[in-house]
Amino acid sequence: MKRIFVTGSGGQVGTELVAHLRRLYGDANVMASDFKAQEGHSGPFALLDVRDRGAIASLLDAFKPDTVMHLAGILSARGEANPQQLWETNMGGLYNMLEVARERGCSVFFPSSIAAFGPNTPADNTPQDTIQRPTTIYGVSKVAGELLCDYYHLKYGVDARGLRFPGLISYEALPGGGTTDYAVHIYYEARARGRYTSYIAAGSYMDMMYMPDALDAVVRLMEADPAKLRHRSAFNISAMSFDPEGIAASIRKVLPDFELDYDVDPERQAIADSWPNSLDCSAAREEWGFAPRYDLDAMTRDMLARVPER
Ligand code: SER
């Protein structure tokens, strides 16, 4: 991986991944793209609608990357408001990207999600290979995306790799329209007001990870020796599993007066209920050395130190 093209660079992951990759590979070797204009890039940037395959092809022909990281997509809760738009953006965009990458011999990174699982998936210690019958359009697009990436590898030899991201917590850019977003908002509200009203119910456990560990996982996976990969496009990864009470208890170790109450949103709660409680990440550890550094309390200390600066 020497020259990398990233879509969705304005999103929660893209904002930090582009900066991380530029530190590792050089500003000029990482091209960012997003459907919204962005200021202040230290390397190349282009406006891009990933539904436009011709536009992707032109940008790749000009930049000549060896790797594309296809982050552009709509998240779970927002997708339920407009499933047709999600399909066109998430599936149409991935298909376009795989085709353009196939023609040009690029490797592909695809972010799947805990949303690729559903209500009849084993919820605890969810295996790497298990039942995947999601009930959100976002989850359906992630399962289809995992399979499409595997197919492009089998059929055409495209080096497509991917991770099933859990909820990602970070302070550079906010997530937009996801179900796990509460675990980001709670830190901002804890700092600003000393209290938070959660739209996810007590007792709803979901997998989570701090952004620095997610960035490290992307690079480790993409740099991994392909001979060691038995899975390719959808590794379970997670660093912690908590419910709103668990994250509140962690915040109280820093802010003892923090208060949590609930106003549960039935739609996002139903999505959370359909996802696993905690993933088995042994395939990622064994095949490419997945090793997250932040547990809940370490993440909380760092988030609460950083959030006031935002
Ligand atoms: N964090 C995402 C969401 O909540 C899951 O991939 O939609």
List keywords for this structure.
alpha/beta; 12 strands; UDP-galactose 4-epimerase, domain 1; 310 residues; seven-stranded parallel β-sheet; 11 helices; Rossmann fold; 2 domains
How are the secondary structure elements laid out?
Elements: E1 4-7, H1 12-25, E2 30-34, E3 45-47, H2 53-63, E4 67-70, H3 76-81, H4 83-104, E5 107-113, H5 137-156, E6 160-165, E7 167-169, H6 182-193, E8 195-198, E9 206-210, H7 211-223, E10 235-236, E11 240-242, H8 244-252, E12 259-262, H9 266-274, H10 282-288, H11 296-306
Parallel strand pairs: 1-2, 1-4, 2-3, 4-5, 5-6, 6-10, 7-9, 8-12
Antiparallel strand pairs: 9-11
The site of serine has 10 residues, from loops.
Structure report:
The structure is a single chain. By secondary structure, the protein is α/β, with parallel strands linked by helices. It has 2 domains: 4-167 and 208-236, NAD(P)-binding Rossmann-like Domain (Rossmann fold, 3-Layer(aba) Sandwich), CATH 3.40.50; 171-207 and 240-276 and 293-309, UDP-galactose 4-epimerase, domain 1. Helix content is 43%, strand content 16%. It is built from 11 helices and 12 strands. It has a 7-stranded parallel sheet, with helices on both faces. A 3-stranded mixed sheet has the order 7-9-11. Helix 2 packs parallel to helix 4 (83-104), helix 4 packs parallel to helix 5 and helix 6 (182-193) packs parallel to helix 8. The longest helix has 22 residues, at 83-104. It is globular, with a radius of gyration of 19 Å. It starts with a strand and ends with a helix. The model has no long low-confidence stretch (mean pLDDT 97).
